[in-house]
Structure of Serine/threonine-protein phosphatase:
Amino acid sequence: MSDLDKAIALLRACRLIPENQVRELCYKARELLIEEGNVVGVDAPVTICGDIHGQFHDLMELFRVGGDVPDTNYLFMGDFVDRGFYSLESFLLLLCLKVRYPDRITLIRGNHESRQITTVYGFYDECLRKYGSANVWRYCCEVFDYLALGALVSGAATNLEPTSATLADTFVDTDDSQSSTPATDYADIDIEVLNANNEILSRYRRRDRDPLMSSSPVRGGMSGSNGAPRAAGAAGTGATADSGGSASNDGGAVLCVHGGLSPLIDTIDKIRLLDRKQEVPHEGAMCDLLWSDPDEIDGWGLSPRGAGFLFGADIVKCFNHRNDLSLIARAHQLVMEGFKEMFDATIVTVWSAPNYCYRCGNVAAILELAEDGSNAGFARSNGDAGRSRGLPMPMPMPMPGIGPGGLQGQGQGQGQGQGGGGLIPRQMDIGHRMAPGRRYRVFEAAPQDSRGMPAKKPVADYFL
């Protein structure tokens, strides 16, 4: 057994590893993470997880429900530390698994992976208490600076594969389309929700969509007005569609970020150009990706968090179309039911910390995306799909308070170009990629060992 395997075994038992091993682990992790881009490419199948927040026993329950590493391919969307009592054990275990199985676990940065936030909300104090100095906190913060800002999942199947799961006593078959298709026909099922015992709680059928709808940017088919298939290339790039490309599967890529979108970012390529190896700034594109939230508004709005922005359905649908995405997956917000889909299933919030702060009483969820089998997703759609095939395109219309560089007073001289995220479509005939089949596994908090849990000093209430 290697030293790394021994460290994993210790951490799985909720026991800390020596400080010198933490230093070596963080050094190896930085060497690994520096090779990753700002947006990590991940092939389906993958299991997407939201906030953990130092709830170690619940992380172990997550692995029990979703499968262990390396058997399951995981993508964690940040906020590994703070709030919970075991931030060190949780983050160091995930870091060990990343170094041990780099192709089977992806870690992206959350707003709590920050020096300023961790000094206020618990991680700094935990490092001092458990190691007697701030050295381990510094090692971990250096790793935070190297974490990717997002991930792009390709090759996700639009249809769910049958499972051996049984129906729970409370099973609900929701048939939005009033179809006579039996619930066992997975070609017609959009969402499946299972509990921690692998029992099916509910199924939701896929709604029929017309090829093009003149009144909604999310409703749309997979072919142009002339019946030709949509072009395919690399999702989230500025590759031109003039060459036509090749036909791909019905679904687009899935973008995973911790928080949300930014008025300074209109393409995924612009995320790739950011300098991420720094402390999270108080404003700007990098800050927005980690702090913003979707809301039932039009366009952009000020966030009550004091960082990032609120953004509405029009922003999400325009961004998804421009980058040929079928879904945005994000974390960052407590959801009592574990997950919440918004804006006609164009964005979903996944929350993976049950009974948050040991008192909120919420359940947690993880999102499983299956693979479509089309060469592991290498036939991918590009960011300009449909532009040479006769699909009606949106005409940019500036929002009030949005200038060429983003929000007024922001983004000027920052080299971001046009803040396309701040544009909304005047003509709303936008084709929409079919969302992938989504299987959510919902679980409750694991039994907690209260021994040795220190009394936490009160901290300021906030909405992080």
The first helix runs from residue 3 to 12. The two ends are 40 Å apart (CA to CA). The first strand starts at residue 39 and ends at 43. The chain is about 20% helix and 20% strand.
